[in-house]
Structures are given as C-alpha cells and as structure tokens.
Specification:
Layout (H helix, E strand, L loop, with lengths): L4 H8 L2 E4 L5 H14 L11 H13 L4 E6 L2 E10 L9 E8 L8 H15 L4 E7 L4 H9 L3 E12 L2 E11 L11
Parallel strand pairs: 4-5
Antiparallel strand pairs: 1-2, 2-3, 3-4, 5-7, 6-7
Helix pairs in contact: 2-3
Length: 186
C-alpha cells in the first residue's frame, strides 16, 4: 500500500495528547469493540466506563504515560504503558498497549500513537518496552511494532482461548535510550 495524498492528510491531522478523564467514554467504546471482535485483548466481557476510568487512573498514578490520538476533535485511538511485572527489578521495563477506533486501522494512527508512547517512556527513564500481542496472525500489530524497532523475542503457543479457538501470544521487545548498556537512573 502506498502513502498517497489522502493518507498523508489523514496522518497529519492526528493530534497526540495526554488522556483526560473526559476521554474515558471514547476509550471505553474503542476497547469494547476490540474485546468483542479481536484477540488484542484476552478479556471476554468488555469492562464498563467506571472500570476503564479506574484502570486509567492506576496507570497514571503509577507514573506511566496514557495518551490519546485525536482527529477532527474526537478520540480515534489511545495508548498507554504500564508495569510489565510488579516485582521491583522490573521497574525499568514497561508493557505497551495501543488501540485504534474500528474503521480507522491502517491509516497511521497506531504508528503515531506508538511512536509518541515510546518517546514518553524514554523521557520517563524506562529502558525496555515489551509488546504482548494477542494472536500470532495479527500481522498489522506485529508489523507496526517491527517498523518502530521492536524485535521478535518469542511466541507463547495457545496461551488463550477466545472465539472458540486457541490463540498465541507474540512477545516483542525494544530498548529505549541506553537500554541495558548502563545502569538505570530510576
């Protein structure tokens, strides 16, 4: 697929900003779709807005970034980083999540979101980002992460069961800043 003038215009019209409480309804709607129709999340029942608000607050209170993509005045995607694992030795490693509004996939929104999220994580001093991608057949997500420097580190076969089938998890990783070349400052 080539980037013609229409695609370039769509991408340039995307604004990335910190999420706000007022974005919770849009975030909930986007996530609701992905829970019900995709394998990016292994949740079966979509959480309500109160639960999404609680989760968003926990991410922010943990010192992690939570951003949204806006286009034509509406939220069309969101991304956040969270603790990869709860043990203290993992404090320099985050897991990323990126979701785009249905019908707006493959328009560069996910790429702009993920690039901004990586920049925010690096500014905050994180050193490694892990992508846990539901479904080894999710070529768009795998490709997105590869274009932004993630490398494949493993596949957990049949890790989840959803939509009447077993689903793999693909693990990808990317270093930030000096990565593991120097001790962390965090």
């Amino acid at each position: 697929m080539t980037d013609g003038p229409d695609r370039a215009r769509e991408r340039s019209a995307v604004t990335i900003r910190a999420s706000e409480e007022a974005d919770v309804a849009a975030i909930t709607a986007i996530y609701h779709h992905h829970v019900l129709h995709g394998a990016a999340s292994f949740e079966i029942e979509p959480p309500d807005a109160a639960e999404i608000a609680r989760r968003r607050r926990a991410v922010l209170d943990g010192g992690y970034p939570y951003i949204v993509a806006e286009q034509d005045g509406r939220v069309v995607g969101y991304a956040y980083a969270s603790a990869y694992r709860p043990r203290p030795a993992y404090r320099n490693t985050v897991e990323n999540s990126v979701y785009v509004e249905p019908g707006r996939e493959r328009r560069g929104i996910g790429r702009v979101l993920l690039a901004a999220l990586l920049e925010a994580c690096e500014r905050l001093g994180f050193r490694q980002v892990v992508a846990v991608i539901g479904d080894s057949g999710h070529e768009a997500s795998i490709g997105l992460h590869q274009t932004l420097g993630f490398r494949m580190v493993g596949t957990l076969r049949s890790a989840g069961f959803k939509f009447g089938r077993w689903i793999d998890i693909v693990l990808m990783q990317r270093a930030l800043g000096p990565g593991d070349d120097t001790p962390p400052s965090r």
